[in-house]
Amino acid sequence: MSDLQPHYPKRIVCLTEETTETLYLLGEQDRIVGISGFTVRPPEARREKPKVSAFISAKTDKILALKPDLVIGFSDLQADIGATLVRAGVTVWTLNHRSVHDILNMMLMLSSMVGAHERGQALVAEYRDRVVSTREQANAMSAPRPRVYFEEWDDPLISGIRWVSELVRIAGGDDCFESLSVESLGKNRIIADPSRVIEAQPDIIIGSWCGKKFRPERVRERAGWDTIPAVRDNELHEIKSVNILQPGPAALKDGLAELFAIISRWRHEH
Length: 270
What we know:
- By secondary structure, the protein is of the alpha/beta class.
- Helices cover 43% and strands 14% of the residues.
- The protein folds into 2 domains: 2-95, Nitrogenase molybdenum iron protein domain (Rossmann fold, 3-Layer(aba) Sandwich), CATH 3.40.50.1980; 123-269, Nitrogenase molybdenum iron protein domain (Rossmann fold, 3-Layer(aba) Sandwich), CATH 3.40.50.1980.
């Protein structure tokens, strides 16, 4: 009975960038009918696909008009969007991938959901090998490991996002606020007292202000921060948020590569 033939999702709405990028990497982009307005990677997605959501809000009427058979969201921050769509009869898959391991699992699970399991396995192997190779290169260096302060927002100060903390260690550094990485919510990773950063004495400061340009001069102007080695030695760097703050392929490729370049250069010099 052909009318009962099951099929993989044909009309997918991706509420965050990383699942969009993964589907493009799998060659399954034709299944995507809607994306987040914050999507930058890959650039063709922004040109080709309708934008139907921000991050914590979405145009429900536009999503429903697309008649999706699957909507993919991320975390508690999109729980309300998901609940609204579920009540409207839409199938919603909400992910909570926050570690390097979770990112690889997301890629594998998503590939299975669209019938591209073998391509998914190959893609995951490629990205896993990239991570392992970087870790091995970092571990082979005899130079000291720098203390790294990664700032994902400047007001209030927020740090310790889990996959970034893990990538810093893989790249050969030690995250000053690794202890915060157990917290999934940004509000629980706020550094209310900036003197904690001074006390941590980071050798490198990396800013990725979630879509806003990192301003090293503003970091230098903070009271007492001139005593921090990273500020004194001008080790103030930016990694654009699109390359590292999405828990997906970008972080494991470009984000990790940039971290390794910054950290390995410091280690060579010390």
